[in-house]
Give the backbone structure.
Amino acid sequence: MLVVMKGDATPEQIDAVCDAIRAMGYQPAPMPGAQRTAIGLVGNEGPVDGSAIGAMNGVAQIIYVSKQFKQVSREWRNENSLVTIAPGVTFGGKTVPIIAGPCSVESEAQILASAHGVKKAGAAALRGGAFKPRSSPYSFQGLGKKGLELMRLAQQETGLALVSEAMDEAGAEMVAKYCDCIQIGARNMQNYSLLKAIGKIGKPVLLKRGIAATITEFLLSAEYLLAEGNTNVILCERGIRSWDTLVRNTFDLSAIPVVHKLSHLPIVADPSHGTGVREFVPPMARAAVACGADGLIIEVHPTPDKAFSDGAQSLRLEQFADLVPELRAIAGAIQRRIE
Amino acid sequence: MLVVMKGDATPEQIDAVCDAIRAMGYQPAPMPGAQRTAIGLVGNEGPVDGSAIGAMNGVAQIIYVSKQFKQVSREWRNENSLVTIAPGVTFGGKTVPIIAGPCSVESEAQILASAHGVKKAGAAALRGGAFKPRSSPYSFQGLGKKGLELMRLAQQETGLALVSEAMDEAGAEMVAKYCDCIQIGARNMQNYSLLKAIGKIGKPVLLKRGIAATITEFLLSAEYLLAEGNTNVILCERGIRSWDTLVRNTFDLSAIPVVHKLSHLPIVADPSHGTGVREFVPPMARAAVACGADGLIIEVHPTPDKAFSDGAQSLRLEQFADLVPELRAIAGAIQRRIE
Amino acid sequence: MLVVMKGDATPEQIDAVCDAIRAMGYQPAPMPGAQRTAIGLVGNEGPVDGSAIGAMNGVAQIIYVSKQFKQVSREWRNENSLVTIAPGVTFGGKTVPIIAGPCSVESEAQILASAHGVKKAGAAALRGGAFKPRSSPYSFQGLGKKGLELMRLAQQETGLALVSEAMDEAGAEMVAKYCDCIQIGARNMQNYSLLKAIGKIGKPVLLKRGIAATITEFLLSAEYLLAEGNTNVILCERGIRSWDTLVRNTFDLSAIPVVHKLSHLPIVADPSHGTGVREFVPPMARAAVACGADGLIIEVHPTPDKAFSDGAQSLRLEQFADLVPELRAIAGAIQRRIE
Amino acid sequence: MLVVMKGDATPEQIDAVCDAIRAMGYQPAPMPGAQRTAIGLVGNEGPVDGSAIGAMNGVAQIIYVSKQFKQVSREWRNENSLVTIAPGVTFGGKTVPIIAGPCSVESEAQILASAHGVKKAGAAALRGGAFKPRSSPYSFQGLGKKGLELMRLAQQETGLALVSEAMDEAGAEMVAKYCDCIQIGARNMQNYSLLKAIGKIGKPVLLKRGIAATITEFLLSAEYLLAEGNTNVILCERGIRSWDTLVRNTFDLSAIPVVHKLSHLPIVADPSHGTGVREFVPPMARAAVACGADGLIIEVHPTPDKAFSDGAQSLRLEQFADLVPELRAIAGAIQRRIE
């Protein structure tokens, strides 16, 4: 249930509604907007009778949210949410920031070369995995804390914002200490214990869509983060499982406008995992910008043939440098921009 | 097997290679290119020993085509094929023609309003179904010949090229008589009897990808058309079946660069069936152009709420008119153009 | 709309209702049942007002069929339909007939060895393709009429009923002449022109589920056959497309109880295409019988390693002979039987 | 790499091979079998040169394991693994134990009624969730420790073995304290941190297949458990995501014989989640036994209409009591038994 206040409702009226919601046994979640405040009601599973509140002073309207998700929905908040992970790096507005870098942090030389290369080409943030979810227990699992320290070093040299994945609560706290944004990988999209733990940490989160998740399930997982009080959530489309073996995943770009319709949260696109094949990354990155993605996350490696993981889908530095101007032109064509 | 001739090979040398292929029991298929001629070998199922031909005068190289498809492949023909369905309406080159119109031809007033509207907005061709494949035998099945006559009337008034679907051999001959391009629908992508019959007719064909077809199966179905001697084939990505119910299909745009890699045939995109939801058509049409689609096919209806079929995914005329300039800007950003 | 007559309704009352339906502009389709007659109404697309008929003598109830399919539905006919393709070979009752044989008819020796082998092991009918739908135009396309003649020869020697696939109208007429049951393959499940043509022929039909068809679409395709007056329709689950490459298809056995719930038509299972791997055929054939399949269709070949098609999924004759007693035991455990 | 020792190899020879493997920098994992011992090599990612070991005394053969998984594979251990979760409750042998009970533990009355009912009908173990992974953060999340205490009470009254799900490390330790088998849910199949933690605990594990996991990924997740030294792993097929909305999931029963081919681990089937619809559970439970499932896990609730979760797919107690004799008859038909 959502209580929409009148444009001229006073703070006292808003407080009174919040008190009334608490008296019903739920939590109020006030959401100030440009024109008026809405107050969400958290903690109810089923329908709630809001008729008493509807009669209170300053209340314009009661909206019964029929969808399963609430705080992530456009009904809850009509304006786009802007999620800033570092000064000047904001998702959800006119600019379309690019997060680029290697799949895994492998060495100081590798991450520094990556960082300088993508910075020069126009990236706003650096990606790099220190904790790697791998299908096989015998595959490279990441450098852990050492990897995060190398990310920090790369930040000091380039000023890039940092994004890195966490796979459990202890790892999330470590990533939060070193980086600007915690990534939750596709395999953990429905790891609710992790979602709750990261929601409590409060750092900006990049939540990837699970490989077979519906958009509704995707938004419900984001709801877990918001329900813990963390509204700085960036969604990420990264391809879904399909039957064609010519690509690694089926890049479901229509998820971009679908999410924009249903939710106020920004959504970025990952054409590297979305296709899994280097030469398909540039056209699909262009397509992602064209259909409204609020950012991109692209795997770039100085020497993809020697990468510990995901080499086949990583762009070379010079390919990335060639791609950014194309993306800028596409962004310009739809009145957005890439810095 | 493909015999690549040297750039300065003489006509006599080419003829001699063709004779040698015939002597082996196969059909030669010479393909003159800008720089050199290649000669394909048709009629073999398994591997062929081409060593004797490799030693002939004028032969540069023997390429053993390992993929299941041949005449549709880039190995067979390296340059993009240009498919012209009417004067000035060519797919596969720099321009990106738009085919627009209603799902079904419903009445003279409806098809004329559609044709004038899309023509004015910038479409190059008119779509409109006279024979409709419907899941239910009790749904509207199309106006048949009467529908084709109305299409022709619309052409006389506007000059638009005509594209319409055929579902069987008799229908194909009728569509060929009235229209410029025969559409084979997704449900008939593996109706091999129809593919053979339409291949023999020789008119340009728009072949839609089946709802669960791999790209390889899609190209093999096109191969049926080329194997009958019809090289004027335009492929069409129109969405594949997936599990999310917020869209009608999952629009698999990465099929565009994948097909461009594997085949010389042009491929257009159908964001109307690709999403099934009117408001998602404009962003996905933009994305299709951005990733390199050689054309678009879009459902447009003067009064979608009263459409006999597919009303929910049809753009209104004014929405289509607003969309074309956006598409033009995107095309311009990647050095292509929409007339 | 379905008019359910009282148990003691007279033939005159039934005729009067039929006349009334005709007067409304529709076709009546009387369905005599063990306890009472129901009269379906054919030819309406949208809802019909049946209140006048509801007041006629002998009418027990008017049922408004909300589902898209009608004549195939349990509401239309509550008792299982029995489909007899040859004397003693009936699908939908207590017995579970087995159709077995090679993918393609290849030679006289091959089809006769197959027929004698499967007959001896307990099969009731012989399968064998004379017209083969192949993904590649360069693959073996079947022996055509010659193949059907060889099937007939095998029948003369063994007495087995014959099932063979048709891909177009001309082929269907030829199959109807030589065989007891016309198979419509998965790729043609939504080839509506073929469905209409075969519906008119009137021979028993085995309709295979398309590779990505929902059960609703599957039943709607069967509805095309019944709408032409052909009620002798056997459905067939043969696996759907999925992402795992260890099997050729995902054998969706829950389609068996789902179809039994929604429709009165019998449904058989094809574990050969359902798995695509010889060693998985016996366990999945057992599973199909256990969950209620009304028959099985299994690929068996005297020398699978030399088969022109589908060798990898064909049982050897001795494997089939070992399987039948297992299937008999499973059938017995659920009060059904295999002759 | 797998070192297969001769049947008469001495303990000293086996020790010498283990020492040699350690000297190469890897861990040896000796696997005594009925006829001979095999020694696996753990810790290598890429290929290993085993030629030196091949020349040692007592060594019969070196097998290079090409598949990504090792300890779970049939090459690693040819005989079926027997996993005993409580005295008399063993998976992987001739008997087919049934785990039954409600989705969630809701109250003392509910779990006791469930336990007594399923025990009487023939179940060997009780299922019941104390920690529930729910798509929505606002749905019932389980009773936690209180739920586990109620499970224990039910065990004291009935003697049933206990199976319950854990979602994180702390929960796993609690489940391990109260129950006989820790369930890892489908959503956590690739939660590698959880797999590692539960692998270390050492209790028997029931690992459910992810909703879009290939069999290879499923086995690799089991490999995470075995790599931590826990070999008491029971796999569980519970349906995969598909497009048909008439069932909740597509129950992929061919996973049973596929896993039996590739792995020595037992695999059970969950027809409740596999179909999501109560009336489809009995036929699909029968099918699962018929194709070789090593056990079943079935949702049963004394009053499904009042269940907090999964009521629509839960059998009533009397339905479960009717089902068990059917399953016994099917098991008997394939020389297995249900106690």
Summary: DSSP finds eleven helices and 14 strands in chain D.
